[in-house]
Protein backbone atom coordinates (compact mmCIF):
# COMPACT_ATOMS: atom_id res chain seq x y z
CA UNK A 1 0.00 0.00 0.00
CA UNK A 2 1.08 3.58 -0.63
CA UNK A 3 1.30 6.07 2.20
CA UNK A 4 -1.33 8.83 1.95
CA UNK A 5 -0.55 11.06 4.92
CA UNK A 6 1.99 11.11 7.72
CA UNK A 7 1.87 13.15 10.92
CA UNK A 8 5.44 13.54 12.19
CA UNK A 9 6.33 14.42 15.79
CA UNK A 10 3.21 16.55 16.29
CA UNK A 11 3.12 18.83 19.33
CA UNK A 12 0.29 21.17 20.33
CA UNK A 13 -0.27 23.53 23.25
CA UNK A 14 -3.21 25.70 24.24
CA UNK A 15 -1.88 28.41 26.49
CA UNK A 16 0.46 26.74 28.94
CA UNK A 17 -1.18 23.33 28.63
CA UNK A 18 0.41 20.82 26.27
CA UNK A 19 -2.28 18.68 24.62
CA UNK A 20 -0.17 16.50 22.31
CA UNK A 21 3.43 15.40 22.86
CA UNK A 22 5.54 14.31 19.90
CA UNK A 23 2.80 12.21 18.24
CA UNK A 24 3.37 10.43 14.92
CA UNK A 25 1.03 8.41 12.71
CA UNK A 26 1.05 7.04 9.16
CA UNK A 27 -2.12 6.40 7.19
CA UNK A 28 -1.97 4.33 4.01
CA UNK A 29 -4.34 4.12 1.07
CA UNK A 30 -7.59 2.24 1.77
CA UNK A 31 -6.75 2.06 5.49
CA UNK A 32 -9.19 2.88 8.32
CA UNK A 33 -7.61 4.06 11.56
CA UNK A 34 -9.43 4.99 14.77
CA UNK A 35 -7.95 7.39 17.31
CA UNK A 36 -9.60 6.87 20.69
CA UNK A 37 -9.29 8.52 24.08
CA UNK A 38 -11.17 10.20 26.90
CA UNK A 39 -12.75 13.65 26.86
CA UNK A 40 -10.10 16.33 26.55
CA UNK A 41 -7.41 13.86 25.48
CA UNK A 42 -6.67 15.72 22.24
CA UNK A 43 -8.48 13.47 19.75
CA UNK A 44 -10.29 16.32 18.01
CA UNK A 45 -7.14 18.43 17.90
CA UNK A 46 -5.21 15.58 16.30
CA UNK A 47 -7.93 15.02 13.69
CA UNK A 48 -8.14 18.72 12.83
CA UNK A 49 -4.41 18.73 12.13
CA UNK A 50 -4.71 15.60 9.97
CA UNK A 51 -7.49 17.33 8.01
CA UNK A 52 -5.40 20.45 7.57
CA UNK A 53 -7.76 22.81 9.41
CA UNK A 54 -5.34 23.45 12.30
CA UNK A 55 -1.56 23.64 12.39
CA UNK A 56 0.69 21.94 14.97
CA UNK A 57 3.04 24.06 17.07
CA UNK A 58 5.84 21.80 15.87
CA UNK A 59 6.11 18.74 13.68
CA UNK A 60 4.78 18.14 10.19
CA UNK A 61 1.71 16.88 8.39
CA UNK A 62 2.87 15.44 5.05
CA UNK A 63 0.44 14.44 2.29
CA UNK A 64 1.35 12.22 -0.65
CA UNK A 65 -0.12 14.85 -2.97
CA UNK A 66 -0.40 18.57 -2.20
CA UNK A 67 -3.73 18.59 -4.07
CA UNK A 68 -5.21 15.76 -2.01
CA UNK A 69 -9.01 15.83 -1.64
CA UNK A 70 -9.94 15.86 2.06
CA UNK A 71 -13.39 15.45 3.59
CA UNK A 72 -13.85 16.52 7.20
CA UNK A 73 -16.72 16.17 9.68
CA UNK A 74 -16.06 18.20 12.86
CA UNK A 75 -17.21 17.10 16.28
CA UNK A 76 -19.87 19.82 16.25
CA UNK A 77 -21.24 20.66 12.83
CA UNK A 78 -22.62 24.26 12.82
CA UNK A 79 -26.37 24.35 13.47
CA UNK A 80 -26.89 28.03 12.72
CA UNK A 81 -26.55 27.86 8.93
CA UNK A 82 -29.31 29.65 7.04
CA UNK A 83 -28.73 27.54 3.92
CA UNK A 84 -30.98 24.62 3.06
CA UNK A 85 -29.18 21.26 2.68
CA UNK A 86 -29.56 21.56 -1.12
CA UNK A 87 -28.07 25.05 -1.16
CA UNK A 88 -25.23 24.24 1.22
CA UNK A 89 -24.21 21.03 -0.53
CA UNK A 90 -24.40 22.71 -3.93
CA UNK A 91 -22.20 25.55 -2.68
CA UNK A 92 -19.55 23.30 -1.10
CA UNK A 93 -19.58 21.00 -4.12
CA UNK A 94 -18.90 23.82 -6.56
CA UNK A 95 -16.05 25.06 -4.35
CA UNK A 96 -14.70 21.51 -4.57
CA UNK A 97 -14.70 21.72 -8.36
CA UNK A 98 -17.48 19.20 -9.04
CA UNK A 99 -19.29 19.76 -12.33
CA UNK A 100 -22.90 20.91 -12.20
CA UNK A 101 -24.34 17.69 -13.67
CA UNK A 102 -22.26 15.41 -11.45
CA UNK A 103 -23.01 17.54 -8.39
CA UNK A 104 -26.79 17.28 -8.84
CA UNK A 105 -26.56 13.50 -9.21
CA UNK A 106 -24.35 13.04 -6.14
CA UNK A 107 -26.44 15.34 -3.93
CA UNK A 108 -29.68 13.64 -4.94
CA UNK A 109 -28.23 10.18 -4.31
CA UNK A 110 -26.76 11.01 -0.90
CA UNK A 111 -29.85 12.87 0.32
CA UNK A 112 -31.90 9.81 -0.59
CA UNK A 113 -29.50 7.36 1.09
CA UNK A 114 -29.64 9.35 4.33
CA UNK A 115 -33.41 9.86 4.06
CA UNK A 116 -33.07 13.64 3.86
CA UNK A 117 -35.10 14.12 0.68
CA UNK A 118 -38.06 15.75 2.39
CA UNK A 119 -35.81 18.05 4.42
CA UNK A 120 -33.63 19.17 1.51
CA UNK A 121 -35.33 22.57 1.16
CA UNK A 122 -35.66 23.36 4.88
CA UNK A 123 -33.14 25.67 6.52
CA UNK A 124 -30.39 23.69 8.23
CA UNK A 125 -30.91 25.72 11.42
CA UNK A 126 -34.42 24.24 11.74
CA UNK A 127 -33.37 20.58 11.41
CA UNK A 128 -32.92 18.04 14.20
CA UNK A 129 -29.46 17.27 15.55
CA UNK A 130 -29.41 13.95 13.69
CA UNK A 131 -30.36 15.52 10.35
CA UNK A 132 -27.80 18.30 10.76
CA UNK A 133 -25.18 15.62 11.35
CA UNK A 134 -26.25 13.88 8.13
CA UNK A 135 -25.72 17.12 6.20
CA UNK A 136 -22.23 17.37 7.71
CA UNK A 137 -21.39 13.83 6.65
CA UNK A 138 -22.74 14.33 3.14
CA UNK A 139 -20.66 17.49 2.57
CA UNK A 140 -17.54 15.56 3.60
CA UNK A 141 -18.07 12.60 1.27
CA UNK A 142 -19.55 14.63 -1.60
CA UNK A 143 -16.17 15.23 -3.34
CA UNK A 144 -15.27 11.51 -3.05
CA UNK A 145 -12.23 12.37 -0.90
CA UNK A 146 -8.93 10.57 -0.82
CA UNK A 147 -8.74 11.26 2.93
CA UNK A 148 -11.89 11.30 5.08
CA UNK A 149 -11.61 12.57 8.66
CA UNK A 150 -14.61 11.91 10.93
CA UNK A 151 -14.85 13.30 14.47
CA UNK A 152 -17.62 11.48 16.37
CA UNK A 153 -19.71 10.94 13.20
CA UNK A 154 -22.41 8.89 14.96
CA UNK A 155 -23.55 11.81 17.10
CA UNK A 156 -27.34 12.11 16.77
CA UNK A 157 -27.70 9.42 14.08
CA UNK A 158 -30.38 6.75 14.36
CA UNK A 159 -29.45 3.12 13.76
CA UNK A 160 -30.51 3.03 10.10
CA UNK A 161 -28.37 6.10 9.35
CA UNK A 162 -25.44 4.45 11.14
CA UNK A 163 -25.80 1.37 8.96
CA UNK A 164 -25.96 3.51 5.81
CA UNK A 165 -22.82 5.34 6.88
CA UNK A 166 -21.01 2.02 7.33
CA UNK A 167 -22.01 0.94 3.81
CA UNK A 168 -20.77 4.22 2.36
CA UNK A 169 -17.47 3.97 4.25
CA UNK A 170 -16.97 0.47 2.85
CA UNK A 171 -17.65 1.78 -0.67
CA UNK A 172 -15.22 4.68 -0.22
CA UNK A 173 -12.54 2.36 1.14
CA UNK A 174 -12.91 0.07 -1.86
CA UNK A 175 -12.39 3.07 -4.15
CA UNK A 176 -9.16 3.90 -2.33
CA UNK A 177 -10.24 6.39 0.35
CA UNK A 178 -8.31 6.39 3.63
CA UNK A 179 -10.35 7.10 6.76
CA UNK A 180 -9.25 8.57 10.09
CA UNK A 181 -11.95 8.71 12.75
CA UNK A 182 -12.74 8.87 16.41
CA UNK A 183 -15.80 7.57 18.22
CA UNK A 184 -17.11 7.03 21.72
CA UNK A 185 -18.69 3.74 22.80
CA UNK A 186 -19.55 2.74 19.26
CA UNK A 187 -18.96 -0.99 18.66
CA UNK A 188 -20.66 -0.61 15.28
CA UNK A 189 -17.43 0.89 13.85
CA UNK A 190 -15.13 -1.88 14.98
CA UNK A 191 -16.00 -4.06 11.99
CA UNK A 192 -14.49 -1.52 9.57
CA UNK A 193 -11.49 -0.30 11.57
CA UNK A 194 -8.12 -1.78 10.55
CA UNK A 195 -6.13 -0.34 13.43
CA UNK A 196 -6.94 1.59 16.59
CA UNK A 197 -4.75 3.91 18.65
CA UNK A 198 -5.37 5.48 22.04
CA UNK A 199 -4.37 8.95 23.24
CA UNK A 200 -3.50 9.20 26.93
CA UNK A 201 -1.47 11.94 28.57
CA UNK A 202 -0.71 13.38 25.14
CA UNK A 203 0.85 10.17 23.85
CA UNK A 204 -0.38 7.85 21.11
CA UNK A 205 -0.29 4.12 21.86
CA UNK A 206 -1.46 1.19 19.78
CA UNK A 207 -4.77 -0.30 20.87
CA UNK A 208 -4.74 -4.03 20.23
CA UNK A 209 -7.72 -5.28 18.28
CA UNK A 210 -8.99 -8.52 19.79
CA UNK A 211 -10.96 -11.28 18.16
CA UNK A 212 -14.55 -10.30 17.41
CA UNK A 213 -17.68 -12.30 18.19
CA UNK A 214 -20.99 -11.86 16.36
CA UNK A 215 -23.69 -10.57 18.67
CA UNK A 216 -27.20 -9.22 18.27
CA UNK A 217 -27.93 -5.51 18.29
CA UNK A 218 -31.49 -4.53 19.16
CA UNK A 219 -32.86 -1.04 18.63
CA UNK A 220 -35.81 -0.34 20.92
CA UNK A 221 -38.04 2.65 21.61
CA UNK A 222 -40.14 3.28 24.70
CA UNK A 223 -37.62 2.01 27.27
CA UNK A 224 -35.27 3.97 29.51
CA UNK A 225 -31.79 3.15 30.78
CA UNK A 226 -33.37 2.45 34.16
CA UNK A 227 -35.65 -0.19 32.61
CA UNK A 228 -32.65 -2.24 31.45
CA UNK A 229 -30.06 -1.43 34.12
CA UNK A 230 -30.37 -4.84 35.78
CA UNK A 231 -30.29 -6.86 32.56
CA UNK A 232 -26.99 -8.59 33.19
CA UNK A 233 -27.10 -10.35 29.81
CA UNK A 234 -26.36 -7.08 28.02
CA UNK A 235 -22.83 -6.58 26.72
CA UNK A 236 -23.40 -2.87 26.23
CA UNK A 237 -26.13 -0.30 25.68
CA UNK A 238 -26.12 3.04 23.88
CA UNK A 239 -28.64 5.85 24.15
CA UNK A 240 -29.63 7.44 20.85
CA UNK A 241 -31.80 10.50 20.27
CA UNK A 242 -35.08 8.57 20.21
CA UNK A 243 -34.08 4.99 20.93
CA UNK A 244 -31.84 2.62 22.86
CA UNK A 245 -29.36 0.19 21.31
CA UNK A 246 -28.86 -3.05 23.22
CA UNK A 247 -25.94 -5.42 22.50
CA UNK A 248 -26.40 -9.02 23.61
CA UNK A 249 -24.93 -12.46 22.88
CA UNK A 250 -27.05 -14.33 20.34
CA UNK A 251 -27.98 -17.06 22.85
CA UNK A 252 -29.53 -14.45 25.16
CA UNK A 253 -31.32 -12.40 22.52
CA UNK A 254 -34.69 -14.17 22.73
CA UNK A 255 -34.82 -13.55 26.48
CA UNK A 256 -34.08 -9.86 25.99
CA UNK A 257 -36.69 -9.54 23.24
CA UNK A 258 -39.30 -11.10 25.52
CA UNK A 259 -38.49 -8.62 28.29
CA UNK A 260 -38.81 -5.71 25.88
CA UNK A 261 -42.26 -6.86 24.83
CA UNK A 262 -43.31 -7.39 28.45
CA UNK A 263 -42.42 -3.75 29.14
CA UNK A 264 -44.33 -2.70 26.00
CA UNK A 265 -41.22 -1.48 24.27
CA UNK A 266 -41.21 -1.05 20.49
CA UNK A 267 -38.61 -3.20 18.70
CA UNK A 268 -37.33 -1.19 15.72
CA UNK A 269 -34.46 -3.39 14.53
CA UNK A 270 -32.72 -6.69 15.28
CA UNK A 271 -29.52 -7.74 13.53
CA UNK A 272 -26.09 -9.32 13.80
CA UNK A 273 -22.97 -7.24 14.33
CA UNK A 274 -19.28 -7.87 14.90
CA UNK A 275 -18.42 -6.73 18.40
CA UNK A 276 -15.14 -6.84 20.27
CA UNK A 277 -15.48 -8.80 23.51
CA UNK A 278 -12.53 -8.16 25.81
TrEMBL record:
SUPFAM superfamilies listed in its UniProt record: P-loop containing nucleoside triphosphate hydrolases
MF-aspect GO terms: ATP binding; ATP hydrolysis activity
Pfam families in the cross-refs: ABC_tran
Keyword Protein transport: no
Residue ranges constituting the ABC transporter domain according to the UniProt record: 5-226
Keywords: ATP-binding, Nucleotide-binding, Transport
Name of this protein: Putative ABC transporter ATP-binding protein YxlF
Organism: Oceanobacillus oncorhynchi
